């Protein structure tokens, strides 16, 4: 057992006020020296005046202190905070714990206690309270939805508060949210996602921002939340303050434009070509701001490749067409006129195709030009077009050439005759027309057969090509009837040429299978007159031919011969 002197010398040394008063008169029994320092009055003053203690209590706290005294007598223990007025008028805060000691009969014997000066602590607490008040007022009036989460452990989060804006926009009242965990408030998946964000913020110890879609009492909405960690003095995150923003309309617009874009993209895939936006900078650098995915089928380049540069597009254009495409782009940029080109593409996969591009340009601020356009694979159309052109050429040939003999047909010959007459009208000059006809051709057909007759007709044209001049035109007018146009030829020349031809035919032996066929021709020669029409000229020549026939065939008759007869 320690001697009493030990306790008294211990009490003499403690920095807190230690006191004891007797019951029931409350006469001071003990007050340690620290009291003189803290209360600003000598211990003796308290010994002389038992009421001094209550009079130095701040008037505002006196009633509460008196009440606590009664409480102490009843309960045997009390804890209280009150202010003391020092002699200089200074106020200090005391934290006082007091107990009641009873005698063996249970009667109150003594009150004693320890009081500590807690002024700085109380001021700090007041400051904190007023700050909290301020925060609360701010939260209450803030237009943004705000909520506060207490961090109990790494995985336990408890909602403490949500402001009126949050209550109104989420439909969650303060009563609903307070003391609730995310698991109690949200469905399982949403709670897990929310907790993952809270955990991340606790671990990073810095504000984070995230977007989430939550089904809350006010409906399913998209939120953008900024989460701010609040640390205690030890640096532990104790609270999270969330500031949420309802971004449902924004997200909806985003979804709509994405849907529209996807629809466009889908549509783009159905087209035989690709739609695009092509941007040409003032320095001449071009790239595709947008291209639908069928760019791969036409240029062998993905929309991403085209977005970087237009090189992948121009490189695959056929070298013979590349410059004209570039030039057309430049003209379109300079004049802001529509761009329309057809060109060949050497696809990186090895095949060649025809592309047709159409685009409308617009000039942007800063001088760039932006085209909105469409490039299609028109290979099939081009193939058909080329085929059509070829068959048209074939038909044109068919329309001008006699298929049996290869000589110009009647229509073509009359065209030539018409051209020659027109030339004569303009420039004068001489030209002659000869008509000839195989003699007794029916007999040849009948005797040797139709095929032999055909061979004879071909042979007549062949001989004509041999004996006539390059400028003469031998045409088949129909059946076994032919005509020769002799430009730049006078009448005598034409007669001589005709005779030469007649003799060559008469000397001809036509190989008709097993037999050899001989044939003669009769010819009618006229000099063309500038006032002639093709019909009138042919009619005159036909008359001469008829005459040659009438005179016994295998002969040449000329108009002037008749006139002279
Ligand atoms: N093999 C063949 N015969 C033809 C062709 N075109 C017409 N003919 C025949 O040519 C014959 C012409 O006979 P005609 O008009 O009576 O005259 P022709 O027998 O030559 O008697 P002339 O002219 O008076 O000497 C007919 O029998 C026709 O069928 C043809 O392309 N090939």
From TrEMBL:
Gene3D superfamilies, per database record: 3.30.70.270, PAS domain (3.30.450.20)
Protein name (record): diguanylate cyclase
Enumerate the spans annotated as PAS domain: 3-76, 285-330
Reactions catalysed, as given in the entry = 2 GTP = 3',3'-c-di-GMP + 2 diphosphate
User: Its domain of life?
Assistant: Bacteria
Per its UniProt record, what Pfam families does this chain match?
GGDEF, PAS_3, PAS_4
Please list which residues make up the signal peptide: none
Species this protein is from: Halomonas mongoliensis
Q: Which residues form the GGDEF domain?
A: 429-561
Leading EC class: transferase
Enzyme Commission identifier(s): 2.7.7.65
Keywords attached to this entry: Nucleotidyltransferase, Transferase
> Which InterPro entries does the record associate with it?
Diguanylate_Cyclase, GGDEF_dom, Nucleotide_cyclase, PAC, PAS, PAS-assoc_C, PAS-like_dom_sf, PAS_4
Query: What would be an example GO MF term here?
Result: diguanylate cyclase activity
Domain PAC, by residue range, is 78-130, 208-259, 339-390
Q: Does the keyword ATP-binding apply?
A: no
């Amino acid at each position: 057992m320690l001697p009493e002197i030990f306790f008294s010398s211990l009490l003499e040394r403690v920095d807190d006020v230690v006191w004891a008063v007797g019951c029931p008169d409350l006469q001071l029994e003990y007050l340690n020296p620290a009291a003189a320092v803290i209360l600003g009055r000598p211990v003796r003053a308290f010994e002389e005046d038992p009421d001094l203690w209550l009079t130095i209590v701040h008037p505002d706290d006196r009633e509460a202190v008196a009440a606590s005294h009664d409480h102490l007598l009843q309960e045997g223990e009390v804890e209280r905070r009150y202010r003391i007025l020092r002699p200089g008028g200074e106020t200090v805060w005391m934290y006082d714990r007091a107990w009641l000691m009873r005698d063996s009969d249970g009667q109150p014997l003594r009150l004693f206690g320890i009081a500590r000066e807690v002024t700085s602590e109380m001021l700090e607490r007041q400051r904190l309270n007023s700050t909290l008040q301020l925060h609360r007022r701010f939260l209450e009036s803030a237009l943004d939805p705000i909520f506060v989460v207490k961090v109990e452990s790494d995985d336990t989060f408890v909602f403490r508060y949500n402001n009126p804006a949050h209550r109104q926009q989420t439909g969650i009242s303060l009563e609903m949210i307070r003391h609730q965990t995310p698991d109690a408030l949200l469905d399982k998946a949403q709670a897990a996602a929310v907790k993952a964000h809270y955990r991340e913020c606790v671990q990073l110890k810095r504000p984070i921002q995230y977007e989430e879609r939550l089904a809350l009492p006010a409906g399913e909405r998209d939120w953008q939340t900024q989460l701010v960690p609040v640390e205690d003095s030890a640096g532990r995150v104790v609270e999270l303050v969330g500031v949420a923003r309802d971004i449902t309309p924004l997200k909806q617009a985003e979804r709509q434009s994405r849907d529209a874009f996807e629809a466009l993209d889908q549509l783009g895939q159905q087209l035989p070509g690709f739609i695009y936006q092509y941007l040409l900078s003032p320095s001449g650098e071009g790239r595709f701001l947008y291209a639908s995915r069928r760019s791969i089928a036409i240029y062998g380049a993905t929309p991403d490749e085209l977005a970087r540069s237009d090189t992948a597009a121009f490189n695959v254009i056929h070298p013979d067409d590349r410059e004209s495409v570039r030039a057309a782009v430049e003209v379109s940029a300079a004049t802001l006129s529509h761009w329309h080109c057809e060109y060949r593409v050497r696809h990186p996969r090895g095949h060649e195709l025809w592309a047709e591009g159409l685009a409308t340009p617009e000039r942007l601020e800063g001088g760039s030009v932006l085209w909105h356009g469409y490039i299609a694979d028109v290979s099939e159309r081009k193939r058909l077009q080329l085929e059509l052109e070829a068959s048209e050429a074939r038909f044109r040939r068919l329309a001008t050439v006699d298929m049996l003999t290869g000589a110009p047909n009647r229509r073509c010959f009359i065209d030539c005759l018409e051209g020659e007459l027109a030339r004569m009208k303009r420039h004068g000059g001489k030209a002659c027309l000869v008509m000839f006809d195989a003699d007794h051709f029916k007999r040849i057909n009948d005797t040797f057969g139709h095929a032999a007759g055909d061979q004879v007709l071909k042979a007549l044209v062949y001989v004509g090509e041999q004996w006539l001049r390059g400028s003469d035109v031998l045409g088949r007018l129909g059946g076994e009837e032919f005509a020769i146009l002799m430009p730049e030829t006078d009448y005598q020349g034409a007669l001589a040429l005709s005779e030469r031809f007649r003799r060559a035919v008469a000397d001809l032996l036509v190989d008709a299978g097993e037999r050899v066929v001989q044939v003669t021709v009769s010819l009618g020669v006229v000099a063309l007159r500038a006032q002639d029409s093709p019909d009138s000229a042919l009619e005159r020549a036909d008359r001469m031919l008829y005459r040659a026939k009438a005179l016994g065939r295998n002969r040449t008759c000329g108009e002037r011969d008749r006139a002279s007869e």
